[in-house]
Specification:
Two copies of one chain form a homodimer.
Chain A lengths: L20 E2 L2 H10 L2 E8 L2 E12 L2 E5 L4 H8 L3 E15 L7 E15 L3 H15 L12 H5 L3 E5 L2 E7 L17 E9 L3 E2 L10 H8 L2
Antiparallel strand pairs in A: 1-8, 2-3, 2-5, 3-4, 4-7, 5-6, 5-9, 6-7, 6-8
Chain lengths: ~220, ~220
């Protein structure tokens, strides 16, 4: 296993459909970077909680930004919070001739480990800027940076990427041989993310749309 | 609290930003029905696992279809598996004048409870048909239904919708009063799901695209 891949562990080795699972570092990073939100799971009173959060990857650290509740943050502050962070991109609906072989084309990263609270003010400022920049490149200099009060009010968790896997399905449907002569249409219905026209806030002075916003929309 | 809303519980009452949380049954159902996938969290060895799965709502039951691993399925079969099912739709990026007030417009349902394995063959057949139908209306009669062997190989979990909440953010950015004169552009960058042109499977005989597939694509 080279440094270009995350080493598989018991938890990241599936019991079935192993051909869909990979550990390539660049492929994992690409999915994390493309997705707007992740879903963060943690345990409260022995029961699971899953919340959507914003994330940004910086090297081999994944940073999470969002409300997890005071208790989870306290746990994170006191030695770490066990989390499972899952990021899923949906690429298409796969219509097979049989209902059973219907599927979805997707790319999904699962990262497990212990997340810790980011405490250092400079680290927090850098991660917040990276987060804004990851959502809209150019935006961190197109907005006012967080001040000390805002940084203090921001909870950020850091999850080192160690136990990580990428599951994907792509391509056409896989029908059973005995179904190939059925008269049903079969193929893929593509899904992707559409970027709409920017909507200026009410009351915004008649100002030109800045380059970073135009560049974002132009990528649709 | 009327029957048109899910009764709030300790677990579904947030400690902050309460104005973003609701319990309206129709609004919850609309989000569940619009989303292609959910993220299902459960606990294994005291640690969280979050996996993307397909889901379909039938009345006030949410059915989950996807691989959770043999152990989770065994737990589900032996009295139920505690799950947290989270469904998130992203509607836009919210660019405020300050980095701190950047946000996301979204609709997210969190449903918690004990999921049980669906055992009855007729129930399984009906739910699988409903699942196919929910992804592409008309598709359940446009494909071969599952046979007994396929039904036996399909694991379905049923989560009664009881502890459920809907969190939403919509509308323009909320800037602090002291930031309103900053020269930064502010507004919303809309995001939505694009439906692409159907791609027929290789080798598919030259057959017309059926009405249910054309209707799906026409909704883009």
């Amino acid at each position: 296993m080279s440094a270009d891949a995350y080493p598989p562990t018991d938890r990241t080795t599936p019991s079935r459909l192993r051909e869909r699972v990979g550990y390539d570092r660049a492929a994992v990073h690409a999915v994390l970077d493309e997705a707007t939100v992740c879903h963060v799971g943690f345990v409260v009173d022995g029961r699971p909680v899953v919340l959507p959060q914003l994330h940004v990857r910086v090297g081999d650290d994944l940073y999470l930004h969002g409300s997890t509740g005071a208790r989870a943050l306290r746990t994170a502050a006191e030695g770490g919070l066990e989390v499972c962070v899952t990021v899923t991109l949906i690429d298409g609906l796969v219509l097979a001739r049989s209902a059973f072989n219907h599927s979805v084309n997707y790319r999904s990263v699962v990262a497990q480990g212990r997340a810790e609270l980011v405490r250092d003010e400079q680290d927090k400022a850098a991660v917040l800027a990276a987060l804004v920049e990851s959502v809209v490149p150019g935006r961190s200099s197109g907005s006012r940076p967080a001040d000390r009060r805002e940084l203090a009010a921001t909870a950020l968790l850091r999850l080192p990427l160690r136990e990580v896997s990428l599951k994907t399905r792509s391509g056409p449907p896989s029908d059973d041989p005995e179904d190939l002569d059925l008269p049903h249409w079969t193929g893929v219905l593509p899904l992707s993310v559409r970027r709409g026209e920017p909507v200026a806030a009410p009351g915004l002075a008649e100002a030109p749309v800045p380059e970073h916003v135009r560049a974002w929309a132009a990528q649709d």
